[in-house]
């Protein structure tokens, strides 16, 4: 089984699978409204040591703050 990590550890261009979201109810609802749910495949577009994280989900780009991104756990796709 692949090791679970946060989106912050994924490299730009890497496709990952959302496995778990460890957040409160409101943030989970907000992420779900954007389409970020467990079992979603996303591609990291931009992730630098400071600033926002941009991910591609289907045909959309989603911008996440680092605090939000740190609550989204993923496994690397093969």
As residue ranges, the low-confidence spans are: none
Mean pLDDT: 92
Q: How many discrete domains? A: 1
Highest-level CATH class: Mainly Beta
Q: What is the alpha-carbon Rg in Å?
A: 11 Å
Strand order across the largest sheet? 1-6-2-3-4-5
According to DSSP, the number of beta strands is 6
- What would you call the shape? globular
Helix and strand arrangement:
Blueprint: E1 5-6, E2 15-21, H1 25-34, E3 41-47, E4 53-57, E5 60-64, H2 66-69, E6 72-76
Antiparallel strand pairs: 1-6, 2-3, 2-6, 3-4, 4-5
Describe the structure.
The protein has helices at residues 25-34, 66-69; strands at residues 5-6, 15-21, 41-47, 53-57, 60-64, 72-76. A six-stranded antiparallel sheet has the order 1-6-2-3-4-5. The protein has a single domain (5-76), classed as SH3 type barrels, CATH 2.30.30. The termini are close together. The protein is of the alpha+beta class. Helices cover 18% and strands 40% of the residues. It has two helices and six strands, in the order E-E-H-E-E-E-H-E. A hairpin with a 5-residue loop joins strand 3 and strand 4. The longest helix has 10 residues, at 25-34.
């Amino acid at each position: 089984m692949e090791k679970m990590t946060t989106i912050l550890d994924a490299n730009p261009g890497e496709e990952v699978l959302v496995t778990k979201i460890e957040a409160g109810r409101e943030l989970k609802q907000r992420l779900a409204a954007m389409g970020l749910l467990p079992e979603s495949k996303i591609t990291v577009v931009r992730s630098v040591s400071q600033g926002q994280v941009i991910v591609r989900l289907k045909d959309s780009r989603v911008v996440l703050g680092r605090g939000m991104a740190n609550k989204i756990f993923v496994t690397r796709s093969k």
